[in-house]
Amino acid sequence: MGIAELLLTGLAIMFAIGLWSVFFHAGANRIRATYGAIALACLFLLLPGIGYIIAAPGTVSIVLPLGLPDVGMRLRLDFLSAFFLVVVNLGGAVSSLYAMGYGVHEARPGRVLPFVAAFVAAMNLVILADDAFTFLLAWEMMSLTSWALVMSSREKEAERAGLVYFVMASFSGIMLLFAFGLLAGAGGGYGFEQIRLAPPSGPVATGVLVLVLLGAGSKAGLFPLHVWLPLAHPAAPSHVSALMSAVMTKVAVYGAIRILFDLIGPAMVWWWAIPVLAIAGITTLMGVLYALMQHDLKRLLAYHTVENIGIIFIGLGLAMAFHANGQTAGAALAMGAALLHVFNHSLFKSLLFLGSGAVLHATGERDIDRLGGLIHNMPRTAFFFLVGSAAISALPPLNGFVSEWLTFQSVLASSQLPQMSLKFLIPVTGVMLALAAALAAACFVKAFGVTFLGRPRSDMAGKARETDRFSLVAMGLLATLCLLVGIFPGQAVQALHPVVGFLVGGGLPTEAVTPAVPLSLTPFADGRSSYNGMIIFVFLLVSASFTAWFVHRFASRTTRRTDSWDCGHPEDNPLAQYTAASFSQPIRRVFGANVFSAREQVDMPPPGDNRPARFAVSMDDPAWKYIFTPLSTLVTWVSRRVNVLQQLTIRRYLTLVFFWVVGLLIVVALWN
Amino acid sequence: MLPASLDLLDVTYFLSGSVLVSSFILLYQTRLFGILNAFALQSIILSLAVAWQAMVQQAPHLYVTAVIAFLMKGIFVPLVLRRIVRVLNIHRAVETVVSINLTLLGGIGLTILSIMVVFPIARAADVLVREDLAFALSIILLGMLMMITRRNAVSQVVGFMAMENGLVLAATGARGMPLVVEVSVAFSILIAFFVFGIFIFRIRERFDTIDVDDLSAHRGDAR
């Protein structure tokens, strides 16, 4: 079977599973078999992706006799789509594997199963699309199926999430529709091949940039269009949250890269990097600040997706700056960093969402202030969650560090750019990135510490059980991949070489340099900066083992009696422990007062009154307060005014039409 | 083919101009029977104009259009409407919204507007086509004016059919309009006519009036 047949078979199986599971979903074994089949179908699409990148057989084009007359449905596999095929289907396969255990407990599997298959298939179709019609069709299908998944839960919260998501998804679809309209031009060439032959330039190209930032940006979660994301991602079942957060946002990134770097490509102007970098920097910082204020585990993870999308877009913005100035080496470095972070984030964000799903299933709680001590009952889940937390906090030797380090390297290389404004803006963005990375680490110390360490804060947390085997295998697989990419960064970057070359016309400078130490990653010259994950890994392993041995060997075995401060546990009540809110209080005091206008209110009853004292914190979401609430007020106001028009008599409607026509005719007459 | 004594332009002008004049006659009527007669007159002149075009353009299918116009709109529709009026016993004065004189003034304004719109646009086109289009547009606008200045449902139906007459005039004036298009337009108008007719009876049956403004009191929504 050739690559084209494999791809089509995978897509066909996926859609067939979707249809099949509409009718047959009862019974644990059937659910398990269906998810297994989805995972298998993902492999059909994953293998061509990997194979294409390794063997580079040249572009594969398929024309299906579907879709618009004359246009048909055109699919194409090139390096960019092959890379994203790997991201999507790896995520799809692993979360389906996880769902073989987790999905069995689903309350209403009939509301989830068909849409999962269709959702994954739609994402694959977006990536393979080679004309605007197929792209938009698949894009809308992806939005609709994921919306159905968000709405699959019966919770009140899911309804609001679904509404907000629906509005934002329609918005993003319309923006992309306009973007493709501008790209196709008056001639209406909607095939990507035709657009590549005649890319727009000047103000039209700038219009496309704005529309793509709005359309793909709202899907990916750029500030302030991210508002749907922390509502919708947590509302879905956890394996779907993983798919949405780790994979679907990447499909949006794919859309931005495809349009900006591939379709417009040569018409790129250097100052485009300014809005992209500014928005990306703000998104990164705001995402992590939002996350710090959260104590809903899944929502916290969703806000971290916002942060990481910001990091990816910083890489893309840098790549634009270098690419437009013809500095291939810098562009390749920044693009490589962005793509690697796409891959890495899909790994550790899936891992973390799957872990939070295991916790949710074991305890029924998403509020981390009601969890605690889970490491005793769920040691394996806790370990995998820790690996994911370390990876997302960019700690070496895991994969998150590699891509953020590469992003920093390209920030440092920005001094070679000729434009003064970029020379100032990029270091500022770098500072924001550094601050965000540090805050992310703080946030995950909070998330992991409060959830898994200490003592249980609720009965359910105390009675938790370790999750099932399928889930553990899926999480273990992701954790292993996080570690492997972290300790073999050179190989990972090497694998990305053809993709980066396809986009910016040059490889990473790494190729030219033979590092002095094997397995090192050296973006520039050997002496300037290099990173070796393996050395750090071995060092950490050795020093940790030595410390453990030392402590156990030489620690005093005599029993001690203690009281008074009691190792920090003077109270028996587990509620006296440090909570998530207490942990983030210093950061809330530093940033929250300005960004979220956080207010702390202490209600202290006078002596003699025996009601409890209360301490309350209230915060405003700036995106809602300054943008979306006024906007929705405006829409309500306008529609109330216009509502009068729906209450007219027949004759008045006719009169309205008549005067409208006459008015238009007068305009035409005057025009001539 | 052509009778040599007749000037081609003169006859075309005369016929399509007559359709326009009959539109004004239609607008001037205050009684329902008068309106129906004027409409029948307009449709018959229209069918003559179409037949003339068929001869000039040597397009036999236009004869079919002319016959359809003559039979349907010249005879059948006025007769049915006449029967409706008689059965419902409403052959009294038509309630107009604005005075007849004002309506006529507005009609003259609309005619001037159509000429001003069409002439510059169709400058490159045939003189015949240009005049024809201007007349057709003013007939359409006059039909619309008729619909909005009368309260009675029957006269609104007539206004609607008068608009369609304008469309037919425009379609036949332009060369190369296929018969299928005309037939389908005529057919949809016929359907609309039946729907209107049934509705007029139903409205009357239910609410004891066919003044469309009285219907608004019966709508479910709050005012």
Tell me about this structure:
Chain A has 24 helices and 4 strands. Chain A is globular and about 100 Å long. In chain A, helix 3 packs parallel to helix 13, helix 9 crosses helix 12 and helix 12 packs antiparallel against helix 13. Chain A has 672 residues and is mainly α. Among the domains of chain A are: 282 residues, no CATH class; 50 residues. The N terminus of chain B is likely disordered. The relative contact order of chain B is 0.13. Chain B has one domain. In chain B, helix 1 runs parallel beside helix 5 and helix 5 packs antiparallel against helix 6. The termini of chain B are far apart. Chain B is globular and about 50 Å long. Chain B has 8 helices and no strands. Classes of the chains: A mainly alpha (672), B mainly alpha (223). Chains A and B meet through helix 24 of A and helix 4, helix 5 and helix 8 of B.
Compute the gyration radius of chain B: what is it? 18 Å
> In percent terms, what proportion of residues of chain A is strand?
under 5%
Secondary structure class of chain A reads mainly alpha
What is the first-to-last residue Cα distance of chain B?
64 Å
Structural class of chain B: mainly alpha
By DSSP, the count of extended strands of chain B is: 0
Number of distinct helices of chain B: 8
Overall average pLDDT of chain A: 87
Which oligomeric state applies? heterodimer
Q: How many DSSP E strands of chain A?
A: 4
Q: Low-confidence parts of chain A, pLDDT < 50 over ≥5 residues? A: none
Helix content of chain B: over 70%
Cα-atom Rg of chain A, whole angstroms? 27 Å
Which word captures the global form of chain B?
globular
Largest sheet of chain A: 2 strands, antiparallel
